[in-house]
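Input sequence (108 aa), recorded before submission:
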Amino acid sequence: MALSHGADYFVHNENGSMRLIGCMILIVIEISVLTTGIVATRISRNKYMRMDENSNLTVRYQTKETYEMSKAMIPAYVASFLVKALNILVLWAYYAANDMSLTGYAQD
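Predicted structure, token format:
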């Protein structure tokens, strides 16, 4: 949350001198969310696949539920990433269309 606040400060600061830094922070946050979701899915899948038939039924059920839930969340992570990445690209295009560099300074 603090990182998001910092990104907001960089993108919306008064003189607009650090927009590129703010946009890069935002994209790093989104890539880390997507990566964390994919890694969690793979870890839970591997744990479920390594369980043998003699495992406790409750543990097997909970592990399978964890895997199924994390697998179901992947499309949401990807959709969120794509929407936010598109938003950042539109932001960059706006700065370019208004003859501003990505650092926020007007080009004379």
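Checked by second reader. The mean pLDDT is 80.
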